[in-house]
Design goal:
The complex is a heterodimer of chains A (about 450) and B (about 230).
Chain A (H helix, E strand, L loop, with lengths): L1 H5 L3 E5 L8 H12 L3 E5 L5 E4 L2 E4 L13 E4 L6 H11 L3 E4 L10 H14 L2 E3 L5 E4 L4 E2 L16 E5 L2 H13 L4 E6 L8 H10 L5 E6 L7 H12 L5 E5 L4 H11 L6 H11 L2 E3 L2 H13 L8 E5 L2 H13 L9 H10 L10 E2 L6 H11 L7 E5 L11 H7 L7 E4 L5 H12 L4 E2 L2 H20 L1
Parallel strand pairs in A: 1-2, 1-5, 5-6, 6-7, 10-11, 10-12, 12-13, 13-14, 15-16, 15-17, 17-18, 18-19
Antiparallel strand pairs in A: 3-4, 8-9, 8-11
Helix pairs in contact in A: 3-4, 6-7, 7-9, 10-16, 11-16, 14-15
Chain B lengths: L3 H8 L7 H10 L7 E4 L2 H11 L3 E6 L12 E5 L2 H17 L7 E6 L5 E10 L3 E8 L2 H5 L3 E5 L4 H10 L4 H4 L9 H17 L3 E11 L6 E3 L2 E5 L2
Antiparallel strand pairs in B: 1-4, 2-3, 2-4, 5-6, 5-8, 6-7, 8-9, 8-10
Helix pairs in contact in B: 3-4, 6-8
Classes of the chains: A alpha/beta (about 450), B alpha+beta (about 230).
Chain lengths: ~450, ~230
């Protein structure tokens, strides 16, 4: 039933509203104007309303909707929720998303238990309560009650996010939308009365449109959950990478987690151990999680840890080496024979060992010479390419050479920093063609490390 | 499947295994411990030491004393019968100084040669279940939180990774001219210990401290163990 929850064909919205800005209004607008399935607004206050240039028919109650419904979205005051859920159950609906708050998180555990009991009795799977629910960019099934002009909607793509926090999830959506990062599926489970992150993991793993699953977690809630997470993740990871960020690591942060999630939660060291054991790649911030996910979604798995660094700035090359080595990756020297050849073809003052410095006087061709000479050889497993486009010799055509290097079947990450239109266009072209771009060497290095780490995990499991 | 040693202590309402019970439990799971015997008086202690062979250590066996070392309840490097007798008398004095403590006996244990000291532990967490922890002994482990953890039970790969994960791992591979240590023996202890805690849900907390890793091929031994039970 979880697939119906995240990827329904038809949806009823109980608590749909015509009052601009209200939760029931935004959800209705999302679904009526963008969702690729059937929408049934339910609110006894309205009959037919003209909205968004359409005539919209409202239903008095769920039972008035005669067509079958895959999922019911409930956005009514908390005390009314159990009855509505019961009506959904009697109608034969198998999945519900409860947006409403005012349950266990507000000290009202009894009401939440009532919801659980109804869900169990009718076999309805419930996401929430107290959540933003689902954003599905593939079909525009979207229960996020924040209007799109405040919380942008990312384009469909290979990444998926499971977030314990609704606000963090919405912020990530907005951020991803501006960067045109393909975040295809997002789920927030709120109080987790029924459907858990482990079940969402399973569902995302089974979805062929998703290539990488990211997880934002503050703390588990129920006994035995860590073990279930471990077993599920271990099954998924050989086929699909999981990147996780655990917030709340010690002291005051852990206290905050306790009150925020009502979770009893083990220590941070336990989570760290769990991720290692499960083969989950651990990130230390939301930004880093997506830096890694972007690379994992587009790049092949490296065979080893040896990185070729090419730069038009000696300083950036050195920074890249620092970052790579600190992460346990290697920057081996270029074999003597190839170095001699490079010396002939590059500028006289270029550095040809590794990091390779094509210098600020370099042209696009110089990058091409280095990549073609070294990336196909057995001496390197991946490449970190620094392209500071501010120098006069480089053009947008360099993007083509970098993209062409994909044919060598090795991971590539590009560092590109600046603000000019050329820099932006260059970056867009690379990203559109599946080359991840980062503003600083340390971020690119961490992304390559994630690829290496995932390779290790795959070799082990 | 709870082991009879744990079941007996739990049935008697004891929240902690006795020293000799703890060592016997480890032995039952095939975890190496130095040879030992519990003596009730000086003469028995001397006989035990003669049989085990010098040098030996003498340790207080008292249900009321949790941290033996802190009260002077551990005497190391005893080389002859005279030393054993002296140790017994000193341990008797120690027990008198600790309020309400009773001396049930003296544990005579074979001394393990010098090696790298490790800590292996376990805690029970409601959400994680039994979690096994590994670290190198000494204050730096605590200072830098240099420990690795895994959910029990663990397999060989998990154990190897746990050991490699700690920053102090270099001390096991031969640092500054020190000989490399018997890592496979430590892996074996971790796997067996994780099975031990998994089998005995009554265990809330366990510390094997120290575990001494000897040179390659010479094994690793648990010298002292503490088990706290849920009663």
């Amino acid at each position: 039933m979880i697939p119906k929850l995240i990827d329904p064909q038809s949806v009823a919205v109980v608590g749909a509203s015509t009052k601009p800005g209200s939760v029931g209004y935004v959800i209705l607008e999302n679904l009526v104007t963008r969702f690729k399935g059937e929408v049934y607004p339910v609110n006894p206050k309205y009959d037919e309303v003209e909205l968004w240039g359409r005539r919209i028919k409202f239903y008095k109650s769920l039972s008035e909707v005669k067509d079958p419904v895959d999922v019911v979205v409930i956005a009514t005051p908390a005390p009314t929720v159990p009855k509505i859920l019961e009506e959904a159950g009697m109608k034969g609906v198998k999945a519900a998303i409860i947006i409403s708050s005012g349950f266990a998180e507000a000290g009202n555990a009894e009401l939440e238990n009532w919801v659980k009991a109804v869900a169990k009795q009718y076999g309805v799977r419930v996401l929430g309560p107290n959540c933003i629910g689902i954003y599905n960019a593939y079909t525009n099934f979207d229960t996020v009650f924040l209007p799109a002009d405040r919380a942008g909607r990312p384009p469909p793509g290979p990444l998926a996010l499971i977030s314990q926090s609704g606000a963090v999830a919405a912020a990530i959506m907005d951020w991803a939308a501006r960067r045109r990062l393909g975040l295809g599926l997002l789920a927030n489970y709120g109080n987790k009365a029924d459907v858990t992150e482990v079940e969402l993991l399973e569902a995302f793993a089974a979805d062929h449109r998703v290539k990488v699953i990211t997880v934002y977690v503050e703390g588990f809630k129920y006994p035995g959950e860590a073990r279930r997470f471990l077993e599920t993740a271990r099954k998924i990871v050989p086929k699909k990478p999981i990147v996780a960020y655990k917030a709340g690591r010690g002291g005051a942060a852990q206290r905050a987690v306790k009150s925020h999630t009502a979770a009893m939660a083990g220590t941070y060291e336990m989570y760290r151990g769990l991720f290692q054991q499960a083969g989950v790649v651990e990130a230390s911030s939301v930004r880093e999680m997506f830096d890694m996910a972007k690379a994992l979604a587009t790049q092949p798995t490296p065979r080893g840890r040896r990185v070729l660094v090419v730069s038009d700035s000696g300083g950036m090359g050195i920074q890249a080496v620092d970052a790579l080595e600190a992460l346990g990756l290697e920057v081996p020297e270029v074999p003597e024979s190839i170095a001699r050849e490079l010396k002939r073809e590059l500028l006289p003052f270029a550095a040809v060992s590794n990091p390779i410095d094509v210098t600020g006087s370099a042209t696009d061709e110089h990058y091409k010479i280095v990549l073609d000479a070294l990336l196909p050889t057995a001496f390197f497993d991946m490449a970190l390419i620094v392209t500071l486009m501010q120098v006069p010799g480089l053009t947008k055509n360099l993007a083509k050479y970098v993209i062409d290097s994909k044919r060598y079947g090795k991971p590539i990450a590009v560092v590109n920093f600046g603000g000019s239109e050329l820099v932006q266009r260059f970056e867009e072209e690379l990203e559109d063609q599946g080359i991840p771009v980062y503003p600083t060497p340390d971020r690119a290095a961490k992304a390559l490390w994630a690829l290496y780490k995932y390779g290790e995990v795959k070799r082990r499991l | 499947m709870t082991h009879p040693i744990v079941a007996k202590a739990a049935a008697e309402g004891r929240g902690k295994l006795r020293e000799d019970e703890a060592l016997a439990l480890l032995k039952a799971y095939g975890i190496p411990t130095p040879e030992y015997a519990v003596a009730r008086d000086e003469e028995e202690a001397v006989r035990a030491a003669e049989q085990i062979g010098y040098p030996v250590a003498a340790k207080i066996v008292s249900p009321q004393i949790v941290h033996k070392t802190d009260v002077g309840g551990v005497i190391l490097g005893i080389a002859d019968p005279q030393g054993v007798r002296e140790a017994c008398r000193r341990l008797g004095e120690v027990v008198k100084r600790v309020p309400y403590a009773e001396l049930e006996g003296v544990l005579i244990q074979k001394m393990v040669p010098k090696g790298v000291e490790l800590i292996v532990g376990a805690v029970y967490d409601e959400i994680f279940g039994h979690v096994v922890a590994f670290g190198l002994g000494g204050i730096f482990t605590e200072l830098y939180k240099d420990i690795s953890m895994r959910i029990a039970p663990i397999d060989e790969q998990d154990a190897v990774e746990m050991i490699r994960e700690v920053k102090a791992y270099k001390l096991l591979t031969g640092f500054r001219g020190m000989p490399p240590r018997d890592v496979p023996a430590v892996v074996d202890i971790l796997i067996k210990f994780s099975r031990l805690v998994e089998d005995n849900p009554e265990i809330r907390e366990a510390d094997l401290n120290p575990v001494i890793a000897l040179e390659e091929g010479k094994g690793a031994y648990v010298v002292d163990a503490r088990f706290i039970l849920q009663i």
